[in-house]
Write a structure and sequence with these properties.
It is a single chain. By secondary structure, the chain is of the alpha+beta class. It has a domain of about 120 residues. A 4-stranded antiparallel β-sheet has the order 1-2-3-4, with helices on one face. A hairpin with a 4-residue loop joins β3 and β4. It is rod-shaped, with a radius of gyration of 41 Å.
């Protein structure tokens, strides 16, 4: 009898433990779900922080590229600056597009602001660079013409002092002081820094031609600096004027 009683007691305890375990199971499942759910939150917080950093970096890279772009306007033919512009803008644009994957609106907005800054800077850079190039080209053309006229005036002074004989070259004008009242670079084209050529047909020649080298870079056109180039630029004593021949730019 005692053995049967102990068996029934043990069976009752087992059943009770099983019931308690069943009751506890939902709470365990819920707690496990909570812990699982809490882990992605940490990940999303890290991801949002990373996207914020990416968005801010995109702004920094794009603004840096824009600064280099405007520096390039004033520094001629600097390949290092041109490469820097491309690199900074490319990285900034890539980061800006990457920030659009963020679930936070602020990060996406910062990225789009960066893209807007780059687009505006690029547009202003193109327009401003074209304006500067055209105005600089027109200035060089004008100064070149002034040089031709100054040299022609100096040659006429030399002729009046030397029985109407022309000098054999332009260096004689400088050596004998006929160019002292002009600046030192009057013998060179302001665009190419090459010397002007002087053409006469012998010692007894009465007429002369002073020709702009116009190479390797050609002057812009007189009427349309944007779409024309000057093919010939010289002073003719026979015509007593500067002759300029232009043609449309080849696209």
């Amino acid at each position: 009898m005692s053995k049967k009683k102990t068996k029934t007691k043990s069976n009752k305890l087992k059943k009770k433990n099983q019931k308690d375990a069943i009751k506890k199971t939902p709470s365990l499942i819920l707690s496990m779900k909570k812990t699982k759910a809490s882990k992605p939150k940490k990940k999303t917080q890290k991801a949002s922080t990373n996207k914020t950093v990416v968005a801010i970096l995109s702004i920094i890279f794009i603004i840096t590229g824009s600064v280099f772009a405007f520096i390039n306007v004033f520094v001629k033919s600097n390949n290092l600056i041109a490469i820097s512009i491309f690199v900074f803008w490319f990285i900034g644009l890539a980061l800006a597009f990457n920030s659009q994957k963020s679930s936070i609106k602020w990060n996406r907005t910062v990225g789009m602001v960066g893209v807007g800054i780059m687009a505006l800077s690029f547009l202003v850079f193109l327009v401003y660079n074209q304006v500067i190039a055209n105005s600089e080209g027109a200035t060089n053309l004008r100064n070149c013409k002034y040089n031709l006229l100054r040299l022609a005036g100096a040659i006429k002074e030399y002729k009046s002092d030397n029985s109407e004989h022309c000098p054999q070259n332009l260096k004689i004008l400088s050596e004998q002081g006929y160019l002292d009242k002009y600046f030192e670079g009057v013998l060179k084209c302001p665009l190419n820094e090459n010397h002007y050529s002087f053409e006469i047909s012998g010692w007894e020649a009465t007429h002369f031609t002073i020709r702009c080298p116009n190479e390797p870079i050609k002057h812009v056109g007189r009427l349309d600096p944007k779409d024309e180039i000057t093919t010939e630029l010289y002073y003719s004593s026979r015509l007593e004027k500067i002759v300029e021949e232009t043609k449309p730019k080849i696209p």
